Amino acid sequence: MATLFNTPEIAEFYVKYRPVYPAFVYDKIFQVLDDGSAGKNRQFAVDVGCGSGQSTRQLAEHFDRVLGLDSSEAQLNEARTKFCSGVSNAVFRCETADRLSEVVEDGSADVVTIATALHFFASKSFFEKCLKVLKNGGVMAAYCYSFKMDGWDSADVGRIFQEFFAGILQGNFEQGVCEQGVKHVINKYEDLFTALVEVFPKTERFSRTVVQRRSLNEVGGLIRSLGVYKAYRDRNPNCDDPANTLISRLKAFCGVDSEDEPVVNMPMEYFMIIGKKA
Fold it and tell me: Minimal CA–CA distance to 231: which of 172, 182, 154?
């Protein structure tokens, strides 16, 4: 994962354009965490694959301590100096996900979260490590989002996005890049949930769609922060930038001159899989 995101440019796109997670994501985590508990367990959370800290900062609003782990120093630098600057109860370490149980003490975490990252390193072994570091009654929650191909302002706008993603995904698949991770996202972690059920005694899936009003500049920035986009550009450096083509087509269709004016209603589906330790 670090090879895709361990550059200052991508890290800057992340912190500037990646969305924060809606409150209902955390409401769902706390609902599962508090079920059957005599009190609220909010001492220690671990955010694996924390990137530039969007989820880490939100967790820090609810927990006494939060540890953010990521394999990219560039991403962690953005978290420390920008997104989580001044968040005194959040600390960060450069670690890979497979070292979770070496970095975190057994039975110490109330929650382990993985925000838009599980598809890069998911395995039964990783789920077992999550189970190991959680307290009894603790929760592992992996959440992600994807663009929906329906629900746009018009069918034409949806078609423009569909053609864009079909182009970069097909280009990556033909070159064997990002294939498995992308497929996990496309099927909304359904296959990963199957593996989770084998490890955790209590499991649950959850999803919800929200519509976000975005400017074309924000759309372009979000696109350029995607791993599939960077993989495509890395392997096709001499081709026309597909993000520029996308924005040009949208600008012409929407009839606007400014890329900073909010003009696109972007439907995003947030989905999550949850495991609870007995």
Answer: 172
**Alpha-carbon separation of residue 21 from 29, 144, 180, 240 (angstroms):** 12, 9, 24, 32
- Helices then strands (H, E): number in the chain? 14, 7
3-state SS assignment for residue 154: coil
What SS3 class is residue 123? coil
Angstrom distance (rounded) from CA 202 to CA 211: 31
State how far the Cα of 37 lies from the Cα of 273, in Å rounded to an integer: 20
Burial class (CB in 10 A: 0-12, 13-18, 19+), 137: middle
Name the 3-class secondary structure at 239. Answer: coil
| Tokens 């997104």 -> residue | 83
Q: What is the pLDDT of residues 246-276, one digit of tens each?
A: 999 998 888 888 888 878 899 999 999 999 9
Stated as kind and residue range, the H or E segment containing 33 is helix 23-34
**Residue whose tokens read 């975005």:** 214
Of 144, 123, 113, 116, the closest CA to residue 272 belongs to 144
Which bin fits 128, alpha (ψ -120 to 50), beta or left (φ > 0)? Answer: alpha
State the pairing for strand pair 134-147/262-276: antiparallel
Q: What is the pLDDT of residues 4-56, one digit of tens each?
A: 566 667 777 877 888 889 999 999 999 999 997 767 889 999 999 999 999 99
Nearest Cα neighbor of 157 from 216, 84, 107 is: 216
- Output the CA–CA distances (angstroms, integers) from residue 131 to 29, 44, 102, in the order listed: 16, 15, 13
H or E segment to which residue 1 belongs = none
